[in-house]
Amino acid sequence: MIEQNLQQFLLVLCVSLGVATLPEIFSWFRRIPYTLLLVLAGLVLAVVDVRLVELSPQLILSIFLPPLLFEAAWNLKWSELKRDLVPVSLAAVLGVLISIAGIAFGLNQLLGLPLATALLIGASLSATDPVSVTALFRELGVDRRLTTLMEGESLFNDGMAVVAFSFLVALSVGNEAFDLQSIMLELVQVVGIGLTIGSLIGFGISYLTQRFDLPLVEQSLTLVSAYGTYLIVEELGGSGVIGVVIVGLILGNFGSRIGMNPRTRIIVSEFWEFVSFFVNSIVFLLIGDQIRFATLGDNLPIITVTILAMLLTRAIAVYGLGFLSNRMVQSDISLPAQTVLWWGGLRGSVSIALALSVPILLPQRQDITATVFGVVLFTLLVQGLTTQSLLKHLNLLGTQPQRQQYLELIARQTALSRVLTHLSQVDRRPGIEPEFYRYQETLVKGELSHLQAEIDKLQDEYPNLINFATEQLKLELRAIEAETYAELVESGRLNRELSPFLEADFEAEA
């Protein structure tokens, strides 16, 4: 049995890594975000009826979800999240309720679906999963605030969606009675346990890592904290999702600053980047691979109405709560940005996990899972693949192509400058005429002059590149400073407690 599971795991991994290499071999595939490419590959496997692994809610919620939540929270800067805490909180709480109520109302009134079934579909689809969209944002250089708003909402609404879904399941099977007071009490309890345990573990590990400087141990502690927090909080009756988010935010913004030297933080960040890539590769491939086209066809009317209701309720939540936030705290979220937040609210692994966890004894379980799979597929392929066009239409595209061109020009200029320096210092070699050296110097100087003209032209056309150039230089200087601190710590000339100067400087700049 173990050998068979290992073979399945290796097969999934090989397919995922194979898909990852496609953009490097065929440039056309670079137009499609990596996660969406995995979904398409999974769909191809589903068409030929090749099933790699059977997805289960335990696999997603207990194995895949904690590291994905932790990685996103680790990289989410508190200074940026704090600025938009009100709109994020409104979207994560009221947005979930609007989504559940709107989808349930549409399915119940238009198709006559039982209210309990409609509510479960709404709850399953109330959690957003913007991994594909935020990856596209970073690639295109979109304003970081949009990424913060999307990731912040997703991190917190996952917990709210899981809590709401759990209560609705208990209500459907008769384990709970509808009582507003008990619902609110249970919500406070579930969220409170997650916040408390997540905070205790996060701050505890933060102060623990102050006492030693062992990068591999500190890296391992973050992994243990992600899974450990989820399991402990769930065991105590709280929201494991909220617990993991809190511990990730604390360790990423506080623990890594007071308890890790800069080089350790880089090691840990790179480790979680790998884990996120690894887990997302598996999850998105399996989402596509689990599709049953015959079942989707049988439930096409329900899927269509659900999609329309989801888009409508998402618009009400984003534009309505955005207006409220702008009036309450002057969030200043523009209409184009709200439009991207509306259309970019994709659904993914959490929705799939919730749908799969519907009890078998419920008569319409198959309709619920088929509907959720169909809607998730729509959001990933239709909304995910058109987000870039929407950004372009709304003039929200960043200057990433120009930045890349600028970096290439600077790299060539640096390389040729070193060539010129080498030519001026190299000894005259036997058999090589002095005229050849002068000819080579003339060629290099001409190319350098041409490159400088291109750089000047690019900076004139895109003045923001000057700020980008300044930021690049800051990053280079910070990297040199970090390496210097690390060398001094290793040689014993600097106490470990003094090494986070770099982080302190960075926080001051932020």
Write the layout of secondary structure elements.
Layout lengths: L1 H24 L8 H14 L9 H19 L2 H6 L1 H27 L3 H10 L6 H10 L3 H29 L7 H29 L6 H21 L4 H20 L2 H28 L3 H6 L1 H30 L5 H9 L5 H8 L8 H29 L6 H26 L8 H28 L2 H27 L10 H9 L1
Helix pairs in contact: 1-2, 1-12, 2-12, 3-10, 3-11, 3-12, 3-16, 5-6, 5-8, 5-14, 6-8, 6-16, 6-17, 7-8, 8-9, 8-11, 9-10, 9-11, 10-11, 10-12, 14-15, 14-17, 16-17, 18-19
Give the overall shape, derived from the CA principal axes: globular
Mean pLDDT across every amino acid position: 84
Compute the number of helices: 21
The biggest sheet amounts to:
none
| Stretches with pLDDT under 50, minimum 5 residues | 502-510
Structural class: mainly alpha
Q: What is the CA-CA span between the terminal residues?
A: 52 Å
Helix content: over 70%
Give the percentage of residues in beta strands.
Answer: under 5%
What is Rg? 26 Å
Oligomer: single chain
Along the chain, the helix and strand elements come as HHHHHHHHHHHHHHHHHHHHH
User: In total, how many beta strands?
Assistant: 0
